[in-house]
Task: inverse folding
């Protein structure tokens, strides 16, 4: 990817996070990048192409944040993995805030999102299974594992919009409280030492 395309994505992410995709136009992005709209269109044909590229970038970062399992205690692994996940939620907060409307506008984005979420559910279930094997969690039925995975994914996707609905202005600190929510979700299933 060219430096100009990277700059456009960086500025777009900042502007979308601050204002929303509904309020930010390609003209706003071009102005914030100190370039002409024509130059921006040379790199991205429209705002939807920028959103799609940011979504791909978010998924790439999400996919490559797996905790390093070597020489770490299970609680450290869980803590690190959850923090990386919610750091990504904060970085791409416009996606989480506007997910339903973004998917309604772009069928390709919707298809990619569905594939990613199905993969993510399976990854969370596998993560839970590994914690069972390490005797951190009690043995779970596949139904329990699926329920916990869906609930954890739900927290990750919709914690920030939930805060906004309650009237809390999202900050990195209150978005990161999602880490605690997921830890509490797992607490009833932990093995007693």
Result:
């Amino acid at each position: 990817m060219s430096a100009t395309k990277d700059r456009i994505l960086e500025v777009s992410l900042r502007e979308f996070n601050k204002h929303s995709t509904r309020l930010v136009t390609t003209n706003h992005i071009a102005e914030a990048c100190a370039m002409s709209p024509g130059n921006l269109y040379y790199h991205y044909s429209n705002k939807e192409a920028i959103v799609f590229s940011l979504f791909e970038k978010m998924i790439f970062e999400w996919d490559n944040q797996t905790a390093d399992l070597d020489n770490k205690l299970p609680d450290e692994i869980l803590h690190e993995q959850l923090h990386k996940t919610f750091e990504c939620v904060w970085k791409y907060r416009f996606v989480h805030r506007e997910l339903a409307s973004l998917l309604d506008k772009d069928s390709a984005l919707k298809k990619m999102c569905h594939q990613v979420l199905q993969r993510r559910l399976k990854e969370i279930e596998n993560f839970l299974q590994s914690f069972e094997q390490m005797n951190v969690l009690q043995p779970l039925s596949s139904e329990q594992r699926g329920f916990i995975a869906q609930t954890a994914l739900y927290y990750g996707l919709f914690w920030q919009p939930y805060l906004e609905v309650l009237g809390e202005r999202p900050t990195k600190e209150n978005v990161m409280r999602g880490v605690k929510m997921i830890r509490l979700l797992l607490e009833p299933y932990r093995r007693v030492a």
About this structure: The chain has a mean pLDDT of 92. The chain has two domains: 1-45, 51-189.
